[in-house]
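Notes from the 1:1 (GR / supervisor)

We went over the backlog. Supervisor wanted to see one worked example end to end before approving the batch request, so GR pasted a single chain during the call. The sequence is below; no edits were made to it. Supervisor asked that the structure be written out right there so they could see what the output format looks like.
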Amino acid sequence: MTAKENEQVVKRFYAEVINDRRLDAIDELVSEDFVHNGIERGRAGQRRVYEAFLSAFPDLQTDVIETVAAGDRVAIHRRWTGTHLGVFEKIEPTGRTVDFESTAILTLRGGVITEYCGVLDLLRLMGQIGAAPQTSF
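Structure output shown during the call:
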């Protein structure tokens, strides 16, 4: 696949899985041997992560800020927004809104995502639900 086609797969993944709540798209867009930050999760493990996030933040949405694609890799920077209405990392629902960002480099093979290497601004997220100090940067 071309770099542009890989970029479209990544954008489609976030649009369908997060924004459209189509967790079944993971089976089509993620490899069975998917690796997340060096740990093999596979499709099932990745599905569990998104189920937990969407349970805790049922209105979670992600917007692509920027992508850069080259060969079999796609770099993506996203903004996430939602409301903390379910348990997240053992923190009871607060009803607070969250707004945080993440950046990742995804590797694709044959039109599916095989690896994710990235960071999520978890400190900002946890601060917004009262589980960590608020940051000003």
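Supervisor's comment: The beta strands are 30-36, 39-40, 61-70, 73-83, 97-109, 112-120.
Batch request approved.
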